[in-house]
Structure to design on (417 residues):
């Protein structure tokens, strides 16, 4: 448990540092003279360069453990932020952000894999993933406003330098704070990864100790990824696409009417930082509802995505609903979706494949995060980007292979009291 607490602490600082940049980057690019379409490229290339990093992380985390990748990712990201504080044109910012995307691609799979390995059973796994979501959300509640405040007080360059040094110090502390052990696969976890679960708490048959891992391998060769159909990952892709559109649109929405230059851009991030924090407050509310951890993760995923799609449709048609209310509801949906997807993946994956499973999840998120800002930057003058978010989410839900996921609910049923 102490390892989990230390991990949560370091993750809080890392997520705080990263989310503080959300309301800053678009105004910063505007102050450097970037056009909206180029800003979309800057935001999108950060996500697309996640892909090679995710692929490497998938194999590296399973083979070498999570600690090395967590530390290296934070240290290198901090150094890149120091370089980012000195850029003088949008092309330099594009290069720095593309390298940052590769470096930070290792952080999420490594953290999620380490948390999943600490779990005693499925319920404990769900709680750890909810804790990850809670830490992520707490950091994102205060960090956008904090980043906006830093820019307003000390400017863009100094703000990026401060955030960079914060990541570097955190990476150094993680060397001593994170204790990782190569945990052996236990029957409690092993039974969750197979396609058949024995009742009354019994594990795999004694004469078949590798039953779960063998079935995971068979599932992979027959079109599954560690128990999850490949088509399932279209949904995380759609979710991240919608979030990328939102993160592109909110700062751009506020930039209009503020003019150009460093002073005007610094003024705009104050209100956009509040909007980002409002999304996180909504997520914090649903993450605090601990009884949701006992609801089937597949049901939580579907319900949260449907809610998110309807909210984006409401924004697209311009319904007379307060933007603050809609952003808060988006946060509530996110607080349901992300822990549910992580729990679903952990519960249907063998421990020796956690790194690969979460790297595939991160790849899906990265592709969606690349598509979202690019599409928003190119089409926002002729079509509301929120329509794109709505259609992507509905397409992901429609493509969800429910027939092939029927085997999963039995494996995820909470133990009898």
């Amino acid at each position: 448990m102490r390892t989990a607490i230390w991990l949560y602490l370091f993750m809080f600082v890392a997520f705080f540092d990263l989310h503080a940049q959300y309301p800053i980057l678009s105004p910063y690019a505007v102050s450097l003279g970037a056009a909206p379409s180029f800003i979309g490229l800057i935001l999108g290339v950060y996500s697309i360069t996640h892909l090679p990093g995710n692929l490497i992380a998938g194999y590296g985390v399973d083979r070498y453990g999570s600690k090395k990748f967590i530390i290296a990712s934070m240290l290198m990201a901090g150094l890149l932020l120091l370089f980012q504080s000195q850029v003088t044109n949008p092309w330099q910012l594009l290069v720095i952000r593309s390298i940052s995307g590769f470096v930070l691609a290792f952080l999420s799979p490594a953290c999620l894999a380490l948390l999943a390995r600490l779990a005693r059973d499925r319920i404990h796994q769900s709680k750890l993933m909810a804790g990850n979501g809670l830490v992520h959300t707490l950091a994102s509640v205060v960090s956008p406003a904090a980043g906006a405040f830093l820019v307003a007080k000390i400017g863009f360059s100094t703000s990026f330098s401060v955030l960079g040094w914060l990541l570097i110090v955190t990476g150094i502390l993680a060397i001593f704070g994170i204790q990782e052990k190569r945990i052996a696969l236990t029957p409690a976890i092993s039974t969750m990864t197979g396609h058949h679960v024995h009742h009354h708490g019994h594990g795999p048959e004694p004469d078949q100790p590798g039953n779960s891992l063998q079935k995971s391998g068979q599932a992979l060769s027959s079109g599954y990824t560690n128990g999850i159909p490949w088509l399932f990952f279209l949904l995380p892709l759609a979710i991240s696409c919608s979030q990328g559109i939102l993160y592109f649109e909110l700062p751009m929405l506020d930039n209009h009417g503020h003019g150009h230059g460093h002073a005007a851009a610094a003024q705009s991030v104050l209100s956009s930082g509040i909007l980002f924090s409002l999304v996180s407050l909504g997520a914090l509310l649903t993450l605090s509802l601990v009884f949701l951890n006992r609801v089937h993760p597949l049901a939580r995923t579907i319900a949260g995505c449907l809610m998110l799609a309807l909210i984006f449709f409401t924004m697209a048609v311009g319904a007379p609903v307060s933007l603050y209310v809609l952003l808060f509801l988006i946060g509530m949906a996110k607080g349901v979706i992300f822990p549910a997807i992580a729990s679903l993946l952990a519960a249907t994956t063998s421990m020796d494949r956690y790194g690969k499973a979460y790297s595939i999840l991160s790849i899906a998120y990265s592709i969606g995060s690349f598509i979202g800002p690019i599409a928003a930057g190119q089409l926002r003058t002729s079509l509301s980007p929120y329509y794109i978010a709505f259609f992507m989410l509905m397409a992901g839900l429609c493509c969800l292979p429910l027939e092939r996921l029927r085997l999963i609910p039995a494996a995820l049923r909470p133990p009898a009291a």
